[in-house]
Amino acid sequence: MEHRGILRADEAANRRDELAREGKQLVFTNGCFDLLHVGHVRYLNEAAALGDFVLIGLNSDRSVTSLKGPSRPIHGESDRAETLLALRSVDGVCVFDDARATALIRTIRPHLYVKGGDYQIDSLDPEERAALEEVGAEIRILPLAPARSTSLTLQKITAAETPAPHRPIRLAVLGSGTGSNFQAILESIDRGTLHAEVRLALSDVANSGILSLAQSRQIPSAHIALGGKPKGLARSAQEEIRDRLLDADVDLVILAGFMRVIKSPIIEAFRGRILNIHPSLLPRHKGLEAWRQALEAGDLETGATVHQVTEEIDAGEIIAQKVVAIREDDTPESLHQRIHRVEHEIFPIAIANVGSALIEKEQDARD
User: Fold this and answer.
1) 278 part of the active site
2) What is the mean pLDDT of the chain?
3) What is the pLDDT of residues 84-95, one digit of tens each?
4) Which residue out of 111, 278, 307, 340 is catalytically annotated?
């Protein structure tokens, strides 16, 4: 039997038993791997560090089509298997026809099962999870490479091939912290999945990451002084922000971790055009440290919400939401980190949808 390469299920099971006799571990994962990207490479490299033999259960062409639709797979199963085996981290590939890897898991009985961070243990397919528990496999979720996925890659390709339906959405971004959501927005613009331009970046913190990032991109930016209100923004500061936004002629105002309350001078000027990202499933857990509120409440899930900004805090129309499961071993820090990854995913999409609708409405009014 070949110990490396494309294996039948029974050959993979035999290899697992050989490893067990040698005191070694077989690490298993499964997926379509239809368009290999750096997120796959990173998590497979991490998987290789956890055991001695990495085996991939690869959905066959028929299986991919049943899961993804008639336009998939992009590449045939033999090409996908050959590409995976070219990675140093991958030792074997086992192609399977079913929609789920349940039967394959029961045959191979892997020691360790891994998945990328776009999954959580609670979001695994119930049948596959039951099979893993039945064979005693340890389940490990590995970090997801931000903004790397097959769907985003396909969106980028489509965006490159399809003329933009409207002018770029003109954005202003306000933030107080490291600027990770700002970075996600800029990366979406770079990929072509968000047809927009950032005209202005503002922060209430002079040394904030958002201002540094804006300066590195040569985006007009400014620090807004608090106006004598250390816990808020004075009327003069609110008016300065409004005036800068009007001068920049922006379509949307994006609050990306802006820790000050936006009030009427700005809301009146941009009503219906201010979007905020909040780390909970609104209307649950409004206000500060919403992820900590969710843990203290004993919730089983939380998430991220994009919403319109109104005079009432965290109460505007909900634009988009995505759930994040809460794990038994979660700390406020670990949960907040996973929510951040979801924020980076849904915020650019929500901006694109709202901005496109505004521009289309504007065009219809002119016509």
Assistant:
1) yes
2) 89
3) 999 999 999 999
4) 278
